[in-house]
Design brief:
single chain; 637 residues; seven-stranded mixed beta sheet; six-stranded mixed beta sheet; 17% strand; NAD+ synthase activity
């Protein structure tokens, strides 16, 4: 449960229709299995103590008594288990039957939540047997204990702040205004659904989408457990389709037509963070809910859920390609609008033969095409200096020619040497001044050429560099429009690869592939034997690690300790724990100390869920102290 993770389960037990004794034993067996696996919230299907398909047998006194006897066995079993369990059964109150979810924990029946929406169409006829549940909570007696009965109940975990569970039953989810809406507006972070959804062609896809969409709209965890094999097949077949979903993402899904129990971990801290961030998500205190407390032992949950090492990059090829096309279009449309608004008829870019400037040039080509301008209106400037290699120089020139842009070469060596003389810089001293003089000279050249051509300078720096402050202030840091400003380095690579794969020009593809194969470098130090001597990732760390850190810190506000824990799962076998921690410390130090560079960024289009624009996602003071983050980092091992 550390860092807000709680392990949950959705179970479809083996049952026999109307055999409550057998069913209770089967449920208890699954409860014990779930507890052994560390599951703290376990959900069983609708009416699983009797079977959903009992039909008119629900009117039998013997059936109702047997269901209560089965519930007693489940309550007793829970006494030695650490968890909150939800079980479905029929319940008689005031001579009416209700379809209820019983919440059980630590040897107690905590509450009975009735189903409100009773399907009575097509193959369903629940209204024949059951009465719709009411929101208001009343108290009923079971074995001498007063138990709340009603829809408006929430179960609070005393040990995990924010773990608040509410229940709805099957059809409740399928209506225009499900009970889970009111429950989450009242503060619930986890919804459990006890279901008996029969299977027919195509229904599973709709069901999955329904659960995903509801969990996304409500920013909650959603545990869906459905009836399976064991129900009567007189007219229907049930597949045991179980789902565990978090804020729209399916964490685990069962095989259909097979009774099984699935597990995953919900991240309660992440859900709470999302709700804090979303100002339109309002918890409404006007909803009156009865709060029931339950207890869990504090343990560190072992993660089995997938932790994506590349959160900015879709793993599915078709999704990735669709995303790449979308992003390139967003970038180009942003530049197109800025050019049209300012009346610019040309755009200027410094082309280095590296990834970022390559992507910027590709976007510029797309933008001028949208405007109906010739590609020659793009001025692509190569500015070789002390660190330029033949490989990057040739790729820059060839790329420009293949795209039909105008190529201009301005060798800045003599200008930089003259500047060294002016400021008294020893050219043999390869320090930060030596490097930044080159970067600022390049920016001056670009700005002046833009003035000459009545154009604007397009910036090439990406999101990862901005997060680390890996940019020369008023050098490559500055432009008139920055098309890559919200593109992380890991995604830049895939955008260029996508363009290479789809351009239809073998020669252009060859150049782009070689750019992709070139080490990331600012090329500000002299090469060694004609090859790049200055590799960025040797200096600041692997960009895939930094992008991972950035995503989890910015997107969910996660603390260093949790980011480190997730990174160890995501990069297991790729980086050692020591290496991850080394670069995590670097990331936080650079992120806090370099905010002043981000406070004055040029405009640029946001394309994803994380950006550092001072006018957008990151309103951060330039002088914020790192101390409380550093204290936690210092205690990590």
């Amino acid at each position: 449960m550390k860092h807000g993770f709680v392990k949950v389960a959705a179970a479809t037990p083996d049952i026999k229709v109307a055999d409550c004794i057998y069913n209770a034993q089967s449920i208890c067996s699954d409860m014990k299995k779930a507890a052994e696996q560390g599951a703290k919230i376990v959900v069983f299907p609708e009416l699983c103590l009797t079977g959903y398909t009992c039909s008119d047998l629900f009117w039998q006194e013997r059936m109702l008594d047997a269901a209560k006897e089965g519930l007693r066995k489940i309550i007793k079993t829970s006494l030695t288990l650490d968890g909150l369990f939800f079980v479905g059964l029929p319940w008689e109150l005031n001579q009416k039957l209700y379809n209820v979810a019983a919440a059980v924990s630590n040897g107690e029946l905590l509450g009975l939540v009735p189903k409100k929406y009773l399907p009575n169409y097509a193959e369903f006829y629940e209204a024949r047997h059951f009465t719709p549940g009411k929101e208001d909570v009343e108290w009923v007696t079971f074995d001498g204990q007063e138990v709340p009965f009603g829809m408006h109940q929430q179960f609070h975990c005393a040990e995990i702040p924010g773990l608040i569970v509410a229940a709805e039953i099957c059809e409740d989810l399928w209506v225009p205004n499900p009970p889970s809406v009111a429950a989450t507006m009242a503060g619930a972070t986890v919804i459990v659904n006890l279901s008996a959804s029969n299977e027919n062609t195509g229904k599973s896809l709709y069901r999955t989408a329904l659960v995903q969409n509801q969990s996304a709209r409500l920013i909650c965890g959603y545990i869906y457990a459905s009836a399976g094999e064991g129900e009567s097949t007189t007219d229907l077949v049930f597949s045991g389709h179980n789902l565990i979903v978090e804020n729209g993402t399916v964490l685990k899904q069962s095989q259909r037509f097979k009774n099984e129990m699935i597990y995953s971990e919900l991240d309660i801290h992440k859900l709470r963070s999302e709700r804090r961030r979303m100002t339109t998500y309002q918890v409404d205190g006007s909803y009156e809910y009865t709060d029931i407390e339950f207890h869990l032992k504090k343990t560190e949950t072992e993660l089995t859920r997938y932790v994506d090492p590349n959160p900015f990059v879709p793993s599915d090829k078709s999704d990735r390609e669709r995303r790449c096309e979308e992003i390139l279009t967003i970038q180009a449309l942003g530049l197109k609008k800025r050019m049209a608004h300012t009346g610019c008829k040309s755009v200027v870019v410094g082309i280095s033969g590296g990834l970022d400037s390559t992507l910027a040039l590709l976007v510029m080509a797309k933008a001028v095409d949208m405007l109906g301008l010739p590609r020659t209106s793009i001025l692509s400037v190569t500015m070789p200096c002390f660190g330029t290699t033949d490989r990057t120089y040739n790729n820059a020139c060839e790329l420009t020619r293949k795209l039909g842009a105008t190529l201009k070469e301005v060798n800045i060596q003599e200008a930089v040497k003259k500047h060294f003389v002016d400021i008294g810089q020893d050219p043999d001293r390869h320090d930060v001044t030596y490097e930044n003089c080159q970067a600022r000279e390049r920016t001056q050249v670009l700005m002046d050429l833009a003035n000459q051509s009545g154009g604007m300078v397009v910036g090439t720096g990406d999101l990862s560099e901005l997060a680390l402050g890996w940019a020369t202030y008023n050098g490559d840091h500055m432009s008139m429009y920055a098309v890559n400003t919200s593109i992380p380095k890991t995604l830049v690579r895939h955008l260029v690869k996508y363009y290479a794969d789809t351009c239809g020009d073998p020669q252009l593809e060859r150049v782009l592939v070689d750019v992709l194969d070139t080490p990331v470098s600012p090329e500000l130090l002299p090469p060694e034997n004609g090859t790049i001597s200055q590799k960025t990732e040797d200096l600041v760390g692997p960009y895939e690690l930094h992008d991972f850190f950035l995503y989890h810190m910015m997107r969910y506000g996660e603390e260093p300790e949790k980011v480190y824990r997730l990174a160890k799962y995501a990069f297991q076998g790729v980086y050692s724990d020591e290496v991850i921690l080394k670069w995590l410390r670097t990331f936080y130090w650079r992120f806090f100390t370099q905010q002043f560079k981000r406070s004055c960024l040029p405009d640029g289009p946001k394309v994803g869920s994380v950006a550092v624009s001072p006018r957008g996602d990151l309103r951060m003071p330039s002088d914020a102290s790192i101390q409380i983050w550093k204290e936690q980092l210092d205690h990590l091992a």
